[in-house]
Amino acid sequence: MISALLQTIILAMLEIVLGLDNLLMINLLALRVSPKKRKLARSIGVIQGLGVRLLLVAFITYTLSVIHKEIVFGWIKISVHSLLLLSGGVFLVWKATTELHHHIEHPTIDEAEKHMLVNRDEGNCTKCTQSATPVAITHESLRRFSIQSFFMSTVFSLDSVFTAIGISQHISVMVIGITMGASAMLLSVHKVGEMLQAYPSLKTLALAFVLSIGSVLVIEGIFPDIAQQHVTNYLYVSMLFSLFVEGLNIRRSKNAYSGIAN
User: How many CB atoms lie within 10 A of CB 156?
Assistant: First the structure.
C-alpha cells in the first residue's frame, strides 16, 4: 500500500515536469484563438492530453505492440514511435518558426499600443514610429485548435506513458498519477497563458523552447539510438536559466516603470 502510494506521488510529480512542454504548446496554440474562447481552448487542450494518456494506458499491451511496429518505405524501415516523434518534431519546428516570425515581424495591435504607452511615459515617442507595423491577429477556429492540440498531445503523451510504465506496473497507479499531473496542468494552464499574453518576451522564450524541443524530437525520430534524455536534460536546464534571467528583466522593467510613474 505504501509502495503504491509512493509510486503514485512520484509519477504525479514526473507527469507535471513532463507536461511542461505540452502546457506551453497548448497555450501558444490557444493564443491564436479568439479571446472569448481562449480559456475554453486551454481547458480542451489539457483534457485532450489527459484523454490520450488514459487511452494509451488502458490499451497498454496494444499500444506497446503498435508503437514498436516497423513500417517499411522501400529500403527505409522506421518504427511507429520514431515516425510519430519525427512528424511531431517537424510540426513543432514549423509551428514555432512561423509563430516566431509573426510574433517578431508583425506585432499585434494590443502589443503595439502597450509599446506606445510605455514610450509615451518615457517621453520617447519616436520609437513608436520605428517599430514594426502592427496588424490585427487572425484568429483560428476552435476546431482547428482542437485538431492541432490533439496531434501534439498524442506526441507528448508517449514519454508520459513510457514513464508511467517504468514507475509502476499497476494500471490504477498509472491512471491516478497521470490524472493528478493533468489536474495540476488544468489548474495552472490559464495562469501560464495570461503570463504569455502579458509579457511578449516570455512568449518569445516559450517559442524558442518549443523550437528546441521540436529539433530534439526530429533528431530522436531519425536517430532513435542517441541518448536523447541527456540532450533534453541540458535543454531544460538552459531554458530554466533563461527563464530566470527573463524574470529578473521583467522585475527590473516593473521597477523602472513604477519609478517613472511616481
Answer: 24
pLDDT digits (tens, 9 = 90+) for 82-129: 888 888 888 888 888 888 887 777 665 444 444 444 444 444 444 444
Nearest to 108 by CA among 126, 84, 82, 134: 134
pLDDT at 124: 47
DSSP code, position 134: P
Report the C-alpha dihedral over residues 39, 217, 14, 154, rounded to 10 degrees: 50
Q: What is the largest CA-CA distance in the chain?
A: 70
Q: Are 198 and 176 in contact (CB under 8 A)?
A: no
* C-alpha separations of 55 from 20, 59, 61, 108 in Å: 20, 6, 11, 39
Mean residue pLDDT of the chain comes to: 77
47, 179 in Cβ contact below 8 A? no
